[in-house]
């Protein structure tokens, strides 16, 4: 069991160390985190098995947080086929990495004048694969667990506390996007 705990502690330490400057080199952070996940994916899967079997819907678990410079590190549990709405990250920088399962991430850009959204990229992430974004109010994305049967787990590192953000829905198929304020909730704290 000690080895399983060390893997989460290592992921936490990498994220906190890289974010010590306030705005980290996200590519470097992703490489280091990905190396650990690739090496320890089976142990992480065992360590986090209880999150995969809870069957309580989408959940966010806090692994670490710091105020100066601000950072939060979370593990998220994605039920089978779960799809988020298109959403922003309140201007925070962020990094998202799959720990177990597979995720599809559709990225969007919002036009600052018209508020129109346009899809800019689509990524598929397996264990140890990550994507990241700079602190930009016009970056949005939507994520989906690609499995119809298994819960996916992801690691998220944000440049602050993502307590409030906006989710976007289209009024009609070709209509304008409407922003709805959202509050995020934690299912609990994970011991590292």
Can you offer a commentary on this structure?
With 192 residues, the chain is of the alpha+beta class. The chain has one domain (2-189): Sandwich (Jelly Rolls), CATH 2.60.120. It has three helices and twelve strands. The strands form three sheets. Strands 7-4-9-2-1-12 form a six-stranded mixed sheet, covered by helices on one side. Helix 1 (2-18) runs antiparallel to helix 2. The N and C termini lie close together (12 Å).
Keywords:
single chain, 192 residues, alpha+beta, Jelly Rolls, six-stranded mixed beta sheet, three-stranded antiparallel beta sheet, 3 helices, 12 strands, 23% helix, globular
The helix-and-strand class reads alpha+beta
Helix content: 10-25%
- Count up the domains: 1
Order of helices and strands: HHHEEEEEEEEEEEE
Give the uncertain stretches in residue-range form. Answer: none
| Average residue pLDDT | 91
**CATH third-level topology:** Jelly Rolls
Task: Assign the CATH superfamily.
Answer: Jelly Rolls
Q: What's this entry about, in short?
A:
The chain has helices at 2-18, 26-47, 49-53; strands at residues 59-67, 70-78, 86-87, 94-100, 103-110, 117-125, 130-133, 139-145, 152-158, 164-170, 177-183, 188-189. With 192 residues, the protein is an alpha+beta fold. The strands form 3 sheets. The protein has a 6-stranded mixed sheet, covered by helices on one side.
